[in-house]
Amino acid sequence: MMVDVTLWAGLRPLADNQKVVRVEARTIRELLRELEDRYPGLAEPIKGQVAVAVNGVIYRNDWSQELPEDAEVLLMRRLAGG
Amino acid sequence: MSFDATYQNKSFNSVGTRPLRPDGVDKVTGRARYGADFNMPGQLVARVLRSPHAHARIKNIDTSRAEAVKGVKAIVTAADLPDLTDGDAGLFAILDNCMAREKAMYDGHAVAAVAAIDQKAAKAALNLIDVDYEVLPHVVDVDAATLPDAPVLNEKIFTQGVEPTPTMPSNVANRAEFGHGDVDAGFEQADLIVERSYKTEQTHQGYIEPHACVANCNPDGTAELWVCTQGHFVYRQNCADLLGLEASKLRVTSSEIGGGFGGKTHVWAEPVALALSRKANRPVKLVMSREEVFRASGPTSATSIDVKIGAKKDGTITAAEATLRYTSGPYAGMWAELGAMTSFACYDLESVKTVGLEVVVNRPKVAAYRAPSAPMAAFAVESAIDELAHKIGMDAVDFRIKNAASEGTKSSYGPVYGPIGIGPTLEAAKTHPHMSAPLGENQGRGMACGFWFNFGGQTCTDLNISADGTVTIAVGTVDVGGSRASLSLIAAEELGISYDDIKAVIADTSTLGYNDMTDGSRGTFSTSMATISAARNAIEVMRQRAALMWDIPLEDVYWEEGHAHAAGTKHGNRAPLSVKDIAAEAGNTGGPIAGHSELVADGAGVSFATHICDIEVDPETGSSRVVRYTVIQDAGKAVHPSYVEGQYQGGAAQGIGWALNEEYIYGEDGRLQNPGFLDYRIPVCSDLPMIDTQILEIPNPNHPYGVRGVGETSIVPPLAAIANAVSNAVGVRMAHIPLSPPRILAALNEANG
Amino acid sequence: MRYERPQTIEDATALLANADAKSFLLAGGTDLLVRMQNDDFEADLIVDIKSIAGMGNITETGGGFVIGAGVPCAALSENPALFVAWPGVVEAANLIGSTQIQGRCTMVGNLCNASPAADSVPALVAANARVRVAGPSGQREIAVLDVPTGPGKTSLKKGEIIEAILLPKRDGRAGDAYQRFIPRTEMDIAVVGVGVNLSLDDAGMVQSARVALGAVGPKVILSDKAAEAIIGTKLEESVLDALAAVCSDTSSPIDDKRGTVAFRKQVAGVLARRAAQTAYTRAGEK
Amino acid sequence: MSSIAVSTTINDDDVEFLCQPDETLLDVLRNRLGLMGAKEGCGTGDCGACSTIMDGRVVCSCLVLGAEAQGKTIETIEGLANGAELHPLQRKFIEHAALQCGICTPGFLMAAKALLEANPDPTETEIRFWLAGNLCRCTGYDKIVRAVQDAAAEMRGETA
Question: Which residue intervals define the domain Aldehyde oxidase/xanthine dehydrogenase a/b hammerhead in the entry (chain B) (predicted)?
Answer without folding.
Answer: 29-137
